[in-house]
Protein 1
Amino acid sequence: MISQLFILSSKGDHLIYKDYRGEAGSDVIDVFYEKVTALTGDQPPVVMSHKDLHFVHIRQGGLYWVATTTADSSPFSIIEFLNRLSGLVKDYCGSLSEKAIQMNFALIYELLDEVLDYGYVQTTSSDVLKNFIQSEAVSSKPFSLFDLSNVGLFGAETQQNKVAPSSAATRPIQSSRDPGGKSEIFVDVIEKMSVVIGSNGVLMKADIEGEIRVKCYMPSCSEMRIGLNEEFSVGKSQLRGYGAAVRVDECSFHQSVQLDEFQSHRILRLCPSQGEHTVMQYRLSDELPSAPPFRLFPSVERDSAGRLLMYLKLRCDLPPKRSVSLLPEGAGLSQELSSPDQSAELQLQNRTVFWKIPRLCGGTQLSALFKLDVPGLSSASMLEVGPVGLSFELPKWTGTGLQIRFLRLSPVHPGPSQRWVRYVTHSDSYIIRI
Amino acid sequence: MQEWASQLCENRQFGSKMTDSKYFTTTKKGEIFELKAELNSDKKEKKKEAVKKVIASMTVGKDVSALFPDVVNCMQTDNLELKKLVYLYLMNYAKSQPDMAIMAVNTFVKDCEDPNPLIRALAVRTMGCIRVDKITEYLCEPLRKCLKDEDPYVRKTAAVCVAKLHDINAQLVEDQGFLDTLKDLISDSNPMVVANAVAALSEIAESHPNSNLLDLNPQTINKLLTALNECTEWGQIFILDCLANYTPRDDRESQSICERVTPRLSHANSAVVLSAVKVLMKFMEMLPKDLDYYGTLLKKLAPPLVTLLSAEPELQYVALRNINLIVQRRPEILKHEMKVFFVKYNDPIYVKLEKLDIMIRLASQANIAQVLAELKEYATEVDVDFVRKAVRAIGRCAIKVEQSAERCVSTLLDLIQTKVNYVVQEAIVVIKDIFRKYPNKYESVIATLCENLDSLDEPEARAAMIWIVGEYAERIDNADELLESFLEGFHDESTQVQLQLLTAIVKLFLKKPTETQELVQQVLSLATQDSDNPDLRDRGYIYWRLLSTDPVAAKEVVLAEKPLISEETDLIEPTLLEELICHIGTLASVYHKPPSAFVEGSRGVQHKRLPGSAGSGESVESPDTGSAAGVSDAPPAVIPSQGDLLGDLLNLDLTPPATTGPPPPATSGMQLGAMDLLGGGLDSLMGDESEPLGGDLGGSSAMGAGFGAPPAAPAASFSAPVSGGLDDLFDLGGGVGMPMGAYSPPKTVWLPAMKGKGLEISGTFARRAGVIQMEMTLTNKAMSVMTDFAIQFNRNSFGLAPAGPLQVLTPLSPNQSIEVTLPLNTVGPVMKMDPLNNLQVAVKNNIDVFYFSCQYPISMLFVEDGKMERQVFLATWKDISNDNEAQFQIKDCHLSSDAVSNKLQGSNIFTIAKRTVDGQDMLYQSTKLSNGIWVLAELRVQTGNPTFTVCLKCRAPEVSQCVFQSYDAVLKN
C-alpha cells in the first residue's frame, strides 16, 4: 500500500505531492531528498527507510518519482507502478519534464486520484482512465514530425531514410481526439545485446533481451494484428519449418494480447490502447543465430621505453552497407587512429581510454594504436589491462532475426494514417576481455 | 496557463524556505486576497483557474487554508473538473479545519445520490479521505448505498472506503455491519470490485489477527482463483497475496491451486510474477517431492525468475535479493542458470555484489570451473570494493566445493602475483580461511605469502598473515624474525592485530621453545604492562600463567585442534529463511529481515511459517510415527525416512568392538541386517546386565565403548551424581507428579501396544537434582511374559545416552505395568536432529526390537549453573548478532513477572535483572544447556496483558524454537 506519492525535480523542488493514507507528514519529502542525494555508488538506491517509513523511488525524465509506504508492501509492485505512472504522465502530457509536470499538475492530480485509492493501485490502463479524466493536457510545444532538433536515436540520416524520428511519438495521446490530428502507429522492435568474448576470442556468453513496443495514436483502432516471422519459435527444442529458425528462449506478452493465432500463424492480435506499451518481451541466451556483430583483435605489450602499447583492431561483421556508431573503451597517451573522424581521449579518474567512432560500415575494419606512459609499469600490471567494452546502436537490425511480417489494422482507417515499423539493437554490455 | 506556471516557479522558492515565516506572510496577504476575489467570481473559467492556483500553492507547501470557505463555496457545481479540484483541496485541509469541513458534508451527501456514477464515486472516495471524526457519522448512510450501487465503479470505490473508515473508526464499521457487506463483495460479478474487497479485507484482517474476517475456505479460494483470470494486473497482485495466506488442506488442493496460479508466471508485470512465485514457493512445501508435478513446477519457476533480471537495475536488485532467498531454500530451481548471474561490466556495484553472492550459492562441482574463470576476471576490474568481494568469493568457493579447493588456491596465488595491494591483502585473508577448512594441505603456498609481508597495511590482512605464521611456525624457518618485525610497532597496531600477534608468538614459543624465549617475554610484557586494552591484558595474563604453571596444559590449550569452518556460516538461519520465503516480493525480502523488525505500530505482525514444516512439529508427537516395521503412512518429513533411521541406528556400532563385523549391508538387505546387528548389540549389553548393577555403572564402560564415547574420564565423573540420582529414584517410588521444581510434562504414549506387539510404553522426561531422567511406564498387554528388556538411543542433538541399563529386574507378566526410571547423561555421540529435540529410541525385549521416537523438553538440559554474571550477560547480549535473535509470543499466561521468574528458576532459567519501563517488566534471563550453549532471553511482561514476548539470543539460533517451547510449557504448567 502506498502511503504518499510525490514527484520531485532533480534539484529537489516539490512538483506534485499527494497523501493517500495520512500516515506521515509532507516533511518527509525533504528527508527523502537529503537521503537520495547522500547515497554513495555502492548503496542500493531502491529502498530507503526513515523511521518506520520506507521510500521507493525511480528516476524518469530527470525527475524523482517517489512512493512511501509504512507496511511491508511489495517494492516490485511499487516500482512497476511508478514506471507505469511515469509512462501515463508521459502519454498524457506528451513528454516528461519539470515544465510539462508543472503545466499539467491539475491533470496529474486527477490521474493520481484515479490510479490509486487509499494506496491501492486501481488501474494504469489509459483505456480505462480516459473515461474519468476531465482535464486537457497543456503541451509545451506544438508537435511537428519534422522537428529535427529532437532527432537522436537514429542519427542524422533518418530523414533521408524516411524513417520517423524517435521523437515522433512524443506527444500527448489526447491530441488524437482532435479530428484534425494525425493518426499514426509505431511498432518498434528493440533489442539489447550483452556479449562476453573471452581473451582467446571465444564467445563466452551472449544474451539478447528484446521487446516489441507499440505507440498508438489512433483515435479509433479496434484491432491490430502483428505478424512475426513464420519460422519464429519459442523454447529450446521446438523448431519450425526449414532453414534458419528465428528462435527465442522465452517470451511473455502484455495481457491485452490475444494469442489464438500465435501458435499457428505467429500473429499477435491486440486492441492497442492509446499511448505506449510493451506488447511482447523475449529473451535469447547463448545460441545467437549469427556471429556477434563486432570482433576486436587486441594486442597489449610493453615497449622498450616502458610504455604500454595497445593495438586494437575492430572488425564489424555485419552485412555491408550497415553503419553503426560505437564507443569502445579500454583501460592513461599518444594515439594513431586509422581515420580522421574518430577521436580518443584518456579519462584518468576511471582509468579508461575512450575511443569514439562515429560510424562503422559492415564488413570493414578499423584500427587504433594507443601508447600510454604508465609510471612503474611492471609485467604484472599488464594483467590489469582490460576489458574492452563496446557501446553501439545498430538500426534496422535485430540480433535474433525477428521481423515484423505485416501490420494490419481493422477497421481500415479512412483518413491519412501512417504506420511505422522500426528496428534497433543496442549494446547492453558488450565486453571483450583482453 | 503560462502565467500560473511561472507563478509555480516563483512559489517553489518559497517552498524551500518555508521556515522563513516572516517573509512568507508579508507576501501572502496580497496574494490570498487576490485569490479570494477570483474564487468568488461569477465566471466559471475564472473560478477554475483560481482553484488551480490555490492547489499549485498548496503543492509547493504554502499555507492556503485561509481560503477554505471560499473554495468550499465553489463545490456546488456541475463542472466535474472544478469539482475534482475542490475535493482535492478539501482532502488536504479538512483535517486542520474540522469545523469547516462539516460545511461540505451536505454537498457530499447530495453528490452520493447524483445520477452520474463518476460523481457518486468521487464523493464517496473523497469523504473517506477526510479524516475527521465528525464526518464519519454522515458517511455511513451514503456508503451503505454505494456499496450496493449498480455501477461497479462506485462499488469498487465504496469497498476501499470501508477500509478508510475502519482506519478512522473501527468500532463504527463493525457496528454498521459494513464488514459483512464487504465479505459479500468477494462474490461480486466485477473482478475489480472483488480485488478491492480482498485488499480492504486483508488490511482490516491484519489489524485483527484473530478475527475470522477473511474466511478462506475452498469455496472462497475458488472464487478468488476465478476472479484472478479476469482482474487487472494490480487486482491480481492483491488476490495472489491473499492466496498466499491460505493453508491448503492437503497436497491435492495445493496442487490444484498451483496449477491455476502457474499461468501468472508469464505475466508482463514483474510484481504479478513475484507474487505468483510466492504462492508457488509456499504451496510447494506441501507437495510430495516424488510427484511428477513437483518437478514440472520446479522447471516452470526458473524462466520467469531469469526474466526478472532483464529489468532496470533497481528492479534487478530487488529481484536478486529475492532470488537469493529462493536459491537458499530450493537451489535446484536455478542450478542450470548460473550464467545469467555472471556480472555485466556496466552493472551498478550493488547489483554486482548481489550477483556474486548468488553465484557462490549456486556453485557446485559441476560448474565450478566456469565460476572460477569468471571470478578471476572480476578480480582484475577497476572497482576496488567489487574486486575485494570477488577475491573473497574465490575463497568461499574453495570452502564450499571441496574438489575445487586446489584450483581456487592456485587462482589466488595468480592474483597475489599481480602485486596489486588490495588484491594481495584480500587473498591472504581468504587463504587463512582456506587453511581453517583444509588444515595441513596447502602449506606450500606460505612461502609466496611471506614475500608480501611488507605490503600489508590493513589490520585484517595483517592479522590473517600473523595467524598463518603462528599456526605454521614449525614450517617457517624464520617465523621468529617475521613475528619480531611486527612486534616493533606493537602499540600502533589495531587490537585485532595485537591479539593475533600475542597468540601467534605464544604458539611459536610452544613449538620452538628454545629460540624464542626472549620474544615471548617481550610480547607478554608489551601486552600486560604497556597496554590499556583489557582484552589484550587479560589474554596476556592467561598465557603467562599457563606458560609458567603448566606448559603441557598450555600446549593443549593453545595448540588445540580447531573446529573446521564450513560454508554454512553465511547462510540465512532456516527459520528466518522460512519466514522470508513467505514474504517474497515484499520489503522484508529486500532487507532480509522479518517484517516485525521494521514495521512499527499497531498492525499485529504475524510470523508466517511455511505450511509443510509447521505441520511436522506436531506430527512428531503422535506416537505411531516412530514405529519400526516400515509404516508407510508416516510423513517423510518427520523422521528422515525408514532407511535413514535404520542407517543411523546402524551407525551406533552396537556390535562389540572386538568383532570386526562385515560392513552394513546395502539397501535391500538393510532391514534384516539391521535387526541382526541390533539384536547382537543389545544382547551383548544384556550380558553386562548380569554384572553387579547399582552405583558403579557396570554397563557404562561397555556402553562407552559401544557408543565410541571418550574413555573412562567422563564415565567416572558421572558415576557419583548418577548413583545419587538412582537412590533418589528409589526413594521417590513412582516419581511421577512429584513437584520438584522443574517442570516435567505429563506422560504420553510413545509406543502403543499395537506397534509394540503388546508392549506399551508411555513416558516423559524430567530433571531431578541435576540428573536427567527418562521416566517410563511399561505395560504388558500381550498374553505372554516379557523379559530381557534393554534400551538404546540413536545419536541425537545433545548427545543424550542412557547412563545405565534399563532396570526391569522381574519379568513383566501379562496386564502388569512397571514404572522404570532411566538416568541419562549427555556424553553420547552427537548428531543434529530435526526437530532438534527429537530422540529416536530402540527398546528390545524377548519378543522383538521396537523403535519409536519422542521429543524431550529441552528444559531438562538446562543446567544448574546457568546463571550468568550481569556484566557477562550484557557483553554477550551485545556480542551476539541480531540475526541470531528470535522473538516469540506466549499467549494466555496470567502470571505476574515475579511468579514468572520463580517458576522459570525452578527449571534453571535464571533471572539476572529486571527493569520496568512504561508498566512493562523486562526480565533478563540466562540459561545454559548441558553442552555449554548459553541462551539469553529478554522476557517482556505487561501487567494485565496475558501475552508475553520472549526474545531469545543464542549463538546457536536453532535451539531458540525449542527453548521457547520450554518457556511456554513451563509457564503454563
Protein 2
Amino acid sequence: MFERCSKSWRAQRSEPGGGADGDDSLYPIAVLIDELRNEDVQLRLNSIKKLSTIALALGVERTRTELLPFLTDTIYDEDEVLLALAEQLGNFTMLVGGPEYVHCLLPPLESLATVEETVVRDKAVESLRKISQEHSPVDLEVHFEPLVKRLASGDWFTSRTSACGLFSVCYPRVSSTVKAEIRQHFRTLCSDDTPMVRRAAASKLGEFAKVLELDYVKSDIISLFTALASDEQDSVRLLAVEACVSIATLLPQEDLETLVMPTLRQAAEDKSWRVRYMVADKFSELQKAVGPEITKNDLVPAFQNLLKDCEAEVRAAAANKVKEFCENLPEDSREQIIMTHILPCVKELVSDTNQHVKSALASVIMGLSTILGKDNTVEHLLPLFLAQLKDECPEVRLNIISNLDCVNEVIGIRQLSQSLLPAIVELAEDAKWRVRLAIIEYMPLLAGQLGVEFFDEKLNTLCMAWLIDHVYAIREAATCNLMKLVEKFGAEWAQNTIVPKVLGMANDPNYLHRMTTLFCINALSEACGQEITTKQMLPVVLKMSNDQVANVRFNVAKSLQKIGPVLDSNALQTEVKPVLEKLATDTDMDVKYFAQEAISVLALA
Amino acid sequence: MKSEGVWESCDMQWCLSQAKGSLDDDVTEADIISTLEFNHTGELLATGDKGGRIVIFQQEIENKRQPQYRSEYNVYSTFQSHEPEFDYLKSLEIEEKINKIRWIPQKNAAHFLLSTNDKTIKLWKISERDKRPEGYNLKEEDGRYRDPSTVTSLRVPVFRPMDLMVEASPRKVFANAHTYHINSVSVNSDNETYLSADDLRINLWHLEITDRSFNIVDIKPANMEELTEVITAAEFHPHQCNTFVYSSSKGTIRMCDMRASALCDKHSKMFEEPEDPSNRSFFSEIISSISDVKFSHSGRYMMTRDYLSVKIWDLNMESKPVETYQVHEYLRSKLCSLYENDCIFDKFECCWNGNDSMVMTGSYNNFFRMFDRDHRWDVTLEASRENSKPFQVIKPRKVCAGGKRKKDEISVDSLDFNKKILHTAWHPQDSIIVVATTNNLYIFQDKMN
C-alpha cells in the first residue's frame, strides 16, 4: 500500500508541469499523516512510530488542538499500534510545548489506559507515570490527580486497574487533603468487587507503601495488606507475598513481629500451593527484608516446611533457594543452622520422587560446599553429589556436572572423578540427543578441571565418537568442542591425539562422516596453526576434491576458502588454486558456485 | 407428578415472544444450532452452529410498539468463528462446529467471548464503533488522488460520527493443546484463567497466554484398551477460584481443589448415586452417562443431566443427589429402539434460572421441561410456532405413558425423535428463556401480570 501510494504521487510529481508549486517538504509529512489511517497495520504502525516527525511539522499549537484529539479517538486500532502510540506519548512533552502544556497528553493516555489489552494499558500507565514528573505541583493537582480519580472510579475494571499504578507517582507531590483522598481511593480499590482490580492493587501495594508516611504505612497499608493476604482469591493472596517484601523493608525491626509476621506465617502455610510457591520463590528477598533475628526464629522452620511441602512445585521452588538462603544466614550461626536444620531436608530431597525437585536441587547444591568448607563437604555433601551423579534423571546429573567448578575450588575434582566418569559416559550415550548435546557443551570445562592426562585416558574416545553421531546437531557441537579443546590443550596435543583420527574419517564410506572431517578442519585450522594445517590437513582436503559425492566436493571448496587465510601464499598458488579451478568447472552447479566464491574470496583469479 | 391444576395455579406462565430461524422443514446441516449462552447481564445471547458461525442477539430495552413484551432480541453481530480444517498428520477432518461459547465477565465497553470447536478455542472481541476518521492530505475521501501541487498545508484527520458498526475480531487463538474433542470451556472466578476439557484431559489456560497451558486432569490410561470412562463436561465453581468439577460417562462427578496440588488427578470429592439394582439393564451404563453439569448461581448446588433425569446435588453431600427430576421416564421402555437409532447418545444440556429456584432441560418432540424446586411441580412445554400464538400463554403438554390416552395427551409412540431440544438457556435475572430446536430459536417470556 505504501509502495503504491508513494509511487503514485511520485508518478504524478514527475509529470511535466505538475508539482512545481507545492511545498516539497510537506509531502513526506502528508504521507505520514495519511498513513495514520491506512488499511495496512504495518503502515499505521510506521506512521505512529514517526509521530514526533508529524508533531514537529505541525508545530506545538496544531499538535495540541488537532493531532492529540485525533489520537484520543484512535483507540479502536490494533494492539501493536496502540502500544506504539502509548509509548510515543510518554516522550511527547516538548512536542506539545513543554511542561506547561504536558497535561494535553492526558486525554489520549487516559483512553489508552482503559483498553482491554494489558500490554497497552501497562504502557499507557508507564507513560503517564513518566509525564507526571513533568507536571508542576499545581498542574498535578489540577489535571493529573483528577485523571487518577476518574480512572479509579471508572465503570470498567480496566480503568480501575490502571489507576492502581498511578497513585504512587502523584502522592508525594500533592497537598495533604489530596493525599487523604488518594489514600481513600487506594483503599477502595483494594476491596474492589473484581479480582482483577484487587490483583492490580495488591501488586502496587508495596510501591505505594514506599511513598507513604510511616504512620500511614502502619495504620493504612498494614490493614490493606492483611486483608489482601487473606483474600478469597488465591491469585490475590499470592501477590500480597510480594508486597510483604517491600512493606517489611519499610518498617522498623521492632514492628515487624506484630505487623508483618502473622501474615507471612499464614502465607507460608496457606492452603493453596500457589501461595506457598510464591513464598518459596520470594524467600531470599523475604529473608533480607525481615533481618537475621526473625530469619533464625521464624524463617528457618518455614523454609524447612517448604522443602518438605506436599506439592512438588513448592519443593522445587524452595530447593532452588537453598544456596541463597544458606548464604544469607547470619554468619555466627550459619554453619550450625545448615548442619542441623537445612541439611537433613536437603538429604531427603536428593531422593525426592519428583525429578524437577531433584534437578532444582542439583543446580544449587554444589554451592553449599563453599559455605560449609572442606571437611563438611567431604563428609556430608560429597555423598549427596555422588548420589545425584547416579540419578536416573539425566537433567539432575547434568546440573551437577555443570556446577563442578564450585566443588573444584573447595575439595578438588579428583574426589569426584571416580563417580564422574560413569556419569559422563552415560550422559554421552543418552538416547535423547538434547542430553548428549548438553554434556558436550560441558566438555571443555571438564577437560580444564580434570587435566589433560585424565582426559586422554577417559574422555577422548567419547569426544571422537560424537563426531559420528547420527544427529547433525551433535556432530556440529562435537566439532566445535574439538576446537575449544585444542584452544585449551594446544596444537601439539591436537597433532598427536585429534588430528590423525579426524583425518582418518576422510576415507569413511559414509559421506556424512567424510564431511565431518571437513567441518573439523574448518574449526581446527586456526587453532592448530599454519604448519599442521599445511602439512597434514591440506593434502586430505585436496584429495577429497575428487570425491564422488557433490556435497563433499562443494564442502571442499568451502573448506579451502575457510582455511585459506591460515596457509602461506605458496601453498595457495601451487596447491589450492589448481584444485579450485578444477572444481569451478565441475558438472554440479553448487560445486561450481562455491569454488568460484572461494577463488574470489581468496583472490586467486 | 402433580396435576395440571397445580401448574395453572402457579403464577409463572409462559408465552412465546419470538421464534427465529427458517420455517423450511428442509434443514441445512450447517444451520443446526449447537450451543446457546447468555452473557452475564442477559443483554446479549450468543448462539453457535454446526457451520462454525456465531450469531449474537441483543436485547432491545423497552419496545414501545409492543408494550406487552418487555424486550425483544435482535441480531447484533454475526461472524464466522471457526472454519473446517484438516489435520494432515492424523488424516482427520476437524469440524467447524461450535461446541461451546462462554462469555468473559465484561472488562470495558467491548464484550468478549470464548468459542471452541473440537480442537481450538478462540477469544473474540465484539465491539461497537460509531466514529470514523475523515480527511486525507493526498487524496479525496473517495480515494482519487489530489494533484499534489495543490497540497500547500497539512491536514490532520478528524473523527466524525457514523452509523453504529459492530465488529467481531479474533483476539487470541488457543490451539494445539487437545488431542481429543473439547466438550467444555469454563472461565474461573479469578477472571484471568479458564479451563478446557476434552474426553480425557482438562487443561488450564491464562486468558492472555496462548502458547502454553497446564494439564490439571489426565485420566488417559497407559493402555488405551483399559479405557472405561471419559470426561463429558467440566465447570469452574462460580465463586471459589480453586474448585472445579468434571462429570464422567459413568455417571460420577468429581470435584477437585486446585489449592491442594498442581495436578488434580486426585479428586477431593466424588458425587455418585448407588445404582438401583432393580433398574439394572444393558442400557444402565449408557443412560447414566452425564451429559451436562452446571453449578447453581449461589455455588451451593450443582445440577447434572443424564439421559432420563436431572439431579441436583448439594456440594456438601456426595452420597446422593438432594433432588431428582424425571425428564421423560416414559422412554425407559423404549431404550432399545433409542439405542438402535443412536438417540440414546444425545447430549442434553440443562440450566438454572436466575435465583436457582427452577431448572430447565430439553427432551424429544421439541418438548422441554421445567422443574420448580420450591413448589415441586414440573411442566412440559413445546417449542412450536403452530401451537403458540403471540402473547398467549402456551399450554402444557402431556405424554401418555400407557393405558388409556386422555384428550390432549400424546402417546409415546407418536413422539418425533428427530425433533430434539438439546440446548436451552435461562436469562440470568429475568423470566426469559431460550430454547434451540434443530435450526430454530424460540424465546419465551413469562406473561406479564
Protein 3
Amino acid sequence: MDLAINPFSSGTRLRDMIRAIRTCKTAAEERAVVRRECAAIRAAISEGDQDYRHRNMAKLMFIHMLGYPTHFGQMECLKLIAAAGFPEKRIGYLGLMLLLDERQEVLMLVTNSLKHFEYLVVLNVGRDLNHSNQFIVGLALCALGNICSAEMARDLAPEVERLLQNRDPNTKKKAALCSIRIVRKVPDLAENFMGSAASLLKEKHHGVLISAVQLCTELCKASNDALEYLRKNCLEGLVRILRDVSNSSYAPEYDIAGITDPFLHVRVLKLMRTLSQADADSSEYINDILAQVATKTESNKNAGNAILYECVETIMGIEATSGLRVLAINILGRFLSNRDNNIRYVALNMLMKAIAVDTQAVQRHRATILECVKDADVSIRKRALELVYLLINDTNVKSLTKELVDYLEVSDQDFKEDLTAKICSVVEKFSQDKLWYLDQMFRVLSLAGNYVKDDVWHALIVLMSNASELQGYSVRSLYKALLACGEQESLVRVAVWCIGEYGEMLVNNISMLDLEEPITVTESDAVDAVEAALKRYSADVTTRAMCLVCLLKLSSRFPPTSERIKEIVEQNKGNTVLELQQRSIEFSSILQRHQSIKSSLLERMPVLDEANYLLKRAASTQATISSVKPALAATPGDPLKLPNGVGKPPAAPLADLLDLSDDAPVTPSAPAAAPNDFLQDLLGIGLVDSSPAGGVPSASTDILMDLLSIGSSPVQNGPPTSNFSPPGKAETKPAPVTPQVVDLLDGLSSSESLSDENAAYPSITAFQSATLRITFSFKKQPGKPQETAINASFTNLTTTALTDFIFQAAVPKFIQLRLDPASSSTLPASGNGSVTQSLTVTNNQHGQKPLAMRIRVSYKVNGEDRLEQGQISNFPAGL
Amino acid sequence: MNGSPEVEERLPWSRGGNRGGDDDRFVLFVNKQGQTRLAQYYEHLSLDERRALEGEIVRKCLARTDQQCSFVEHRNYKVVYRRYASLFFLVGVDNDENELAILEFIHLLVETMDRHFGNVCELDIMFHLEKVHFMLEEMVMNGCIVETSKQNILAPIQLMEKSS
C-alpha cells in the first residue's frame, strides 16, 4: 500500500472523531469509524509525522478505551516521552501506561523487540528521574510505579531510593508508591527501603504519609525482617499520626463530612493491624488509641463509618483486650441494625471475620443475620448466607436448616444455586441423624433438584445403600416426591434408582417407620411413574438411561409387569440417541432370551462402601479427570471400580447372553476380572453424556459413577462405534491396557482414548525431599500442543503438619506460566491427604526446547519457617 | 546447548492465587447505556477479558436499584459503585479492601472533576479523557491512593493549562 497518498493522513480532530463515534448507530458503524481512524494514525506514524503526534495519542487512548487494539501506538509513546516539552511527555507517559499492557500479548513471541523496548523505556525513565523539573520527575516515577518489570525495578531502584530523600513532598510521595511496585516485583529489595519508609512517617504532608504507610504495609508483606524493624521503629509514629488526624481541627483540604482525611485513617489502621498481629506488646501499645478512635468517631456519615469499620477489623485482627473487643462487637451490632444497606453489608462482612475471635458474640445476632438471607439485595443475601453457614453448629443445625430450606421454596431462581449448595453442605456435615439427613435431602431435591450437584446425590445414594432400615422409607418418600416434582432432574435420578433397587419395599410397605402413613402403590403404579419419567420430554440422556436400568430391574422384582416393561424397552430400540438405543437393545435381549439368569443378574446392588466413597469424593473434588482416569485404568482389579458382581457368574454364559458367543474373543490374556467388568457395563449408563444438564466433569471420578459408569466420555470422542463392532476389532485393541478386550457391550469406551493420550505423558515425581514429595501429572488439550495443564500434588512425608504452605515456580523466558491457587495451605501429616494446585504452562518454543522449571516451596513446621528449592528437568519429552 | 536449558536466575516468582493486597484493581466510568467512558486497569487483562468483564459488571450494576447496597461481588473482585446522574463510577477492589472508604474515594474523584470542569458531565469526560486520566493518575498509582487533596491533585494540571 502506498502510504504517501493515503487520503486519511491529514486526520480529523479528536473532537470530531469522538462525535463521529457517538453518532454511530450500530457496532459495525463504530468499527468502521475506528478502522478508518486507526489507518490514518498508522499512516501518520509511518510518515514520522510530528505535528499530530500528541493528538493521535489522545485518539488512540479513546480507541483503546473502546476496546480496540492499539499496540501499534506504543513506539509513539516513547517518541513523545523523548520530546523535551512537558505536555508531550505528559501524554506520552499516560499513553505508555495505558497502552503498554497489551505488550505482553503482542510482543511476547518476539523476545528481542520486547527487550529493546524495555531498554528504551529504562533509558527514558532513567533520564527523566534525574530531570531538574520536579513534575517531569513525578511523571517518570508514576510510570515506573505503574508498569515496571522486575528487571526495570532492579535497574532503577537506586534512583528511586535517592528520590525518597528529595525535598519536594510530591516527589517523595510518588517515589514511595513507586517503591511499592519495586518491592512487589523484587521482594529481596525490601530491606533497602525500610529505613527511608520509617522516616517518611515523620512528615507532615498527607500525601507523603499515606504513601509511606502503604509502602510500610507492603514491606511487611515482603519481608519478615522489615516487619520486625517497622514494628520497633514506626508504631510510635503511627499512633501519633492517628491522634493528630483524629483530633485535628477543621482542615479544609482534607475534610470529608467533618472528618479529617478518612483515607489516611484507614491506611494507618490497616498498617497497625499488620504490625500488631500476633504480637502482644504492640497490641497493648495501640490499645488506647484504638479505643479512642472507636468511641470518638462520628457514625452518622459514611466517612466516619469507614473508619469505624477499619478500626473494628484491626481490633479483631490483633491481640486486643476483652474490653476493646466488646466495643468492636457493639459497633458491629449497631451496623447490623442500620437501615443503610451499605452499612449492613460491611457488618456482615466483618462478622465473618469476628467468628474466629468470638463465636458467641456473633451467635447473638443470628436472628438478624437470618433475616438478611432473605433480603431483597443479592449482595447482602450472599454475605448473610455465608455467615449463617459458618454459624451452624450441633445445637442450631435443625432450626437453621429448616429456615433455609423453607426459604429455598420462595427464593429467586438465581439465588437457588448458592442456597442449594450451602444447604447440601450443611446437611451432609451433620448427617449423623440419618433420618433427618434423608428428609432434608428429599426436600431439597424436590424444591431445587436441578441445582443439586452430582456428587451430592451420589453421596445420598451411597448412604441409602448402607442404611438398610431406612430404605423402605426412602423409596416411599421418593416415590411421592417423584409424582409431585417430576421436573427436578436429580430427584428423578435418585428416585428412579431407589425404585429400581427397592421396588418391593415400595409396593409392600416394608420396614415402615412409626411416623409414616402407609401408602398403597401397586406394581403397575411404580412402573407408570418410571415410564413417565422416561418419557418426559425434558429428561436428559443420563436420567433416561437410569430409567431404563430401573425398568429392567423392576421386570425381575415385579414379574407381572414384565411384559409391559418389555414393550417399553422395545419402544426405545429405535431411539435416536445412540446410548439409549444400545441400552434398549441389550436390555431387551436380556428380557427375551435369558430368563434363567435374569434374576441373579438383576439382584440388588451390593452395599456401597461409604468410607471409600467419601475418600474418593474428597480426592475427586480436587483432581481433574486427567489425573484420576489413567490411574483407574491402570488398576483394573480395583474393587471400587468393579463392584462384586452377582454371584460371579462364569464368563461363558455372560458372553452367551450377549449373543456374541460364537466368535467372542475370550483371549487368553483376558484377566479374571472380566465378568465383573461385564456387569459394570450392563449397569453402565450414559457413555456419551451429551446432555447440557450433565454433571460437572470432576464428579465423573467417584465410585458410584464408576459403578453406574455415568457420563464418562467427553462428547468429542465421537459416538461409540459400539456394540455392533465386529469382535475382530476388539481383538486388535492393546490387551494390557484394560480388560476391555472382552468388553463386548462396550465396543469403544472413553478410557481407551484417554489412556492413550495420557500414556504419552506419564506422571513424574517432580521433587522429593525428606519432608515433601511433589508429583506432576500432565494433560494437553487437543489442538494446543504448546499448552500443558499440570496438576501438581503435594504430599507431606513427615509426621507433623506443614502450615502456610506456598508453592512457587519460575520458568525460562520462552515459557509462560499460570498458577492457580492451591487447594489448601496446610499439608496434613504422614501423607494423610494431599494438596493440589494446577499450573498451566505454554511453551512458546514447543518442539525446540523442552520444559524446564525451578520451584520453591515455603512452609512452616511447628511455626518454624522452612524453604526448599529445586529444579525440575525430568519432564516427559514433547511437552 | 544440550541438556536442560538453564533457568535464568533473575526471574519473577509467580505465585498462585490473587495478590491478596488491598489495592484498587480497576476504575471504570460507564454510562447508563453500558458504554465505557473511562477504563483504567491496575493489573494485566487482555482486551477480550476486559470487554467481557466490563459487560458483565455493568449488567449487574445496572440491574440494581438505588436502595440496594453499593457493592457487587463479581468473580474474585468486589466492585464498589456509585451513580451520579447518568454515569456509573465503578472501582474494582480485592476482597479485604474497605468498601466504605472506596465509596468516599469515588466521591472525592467526582468532586475533583467538578472543581476542574465545573459541574462535570459525561461529555466533559469524553472530550477531556486525558485530563481525567491525569487526575486519576495523581490520585491513584499502581492501585494505591497517593493524594487526597483536591488542590494538590489539580495543581499539575492547572500548571500545564497555564503554560499552553
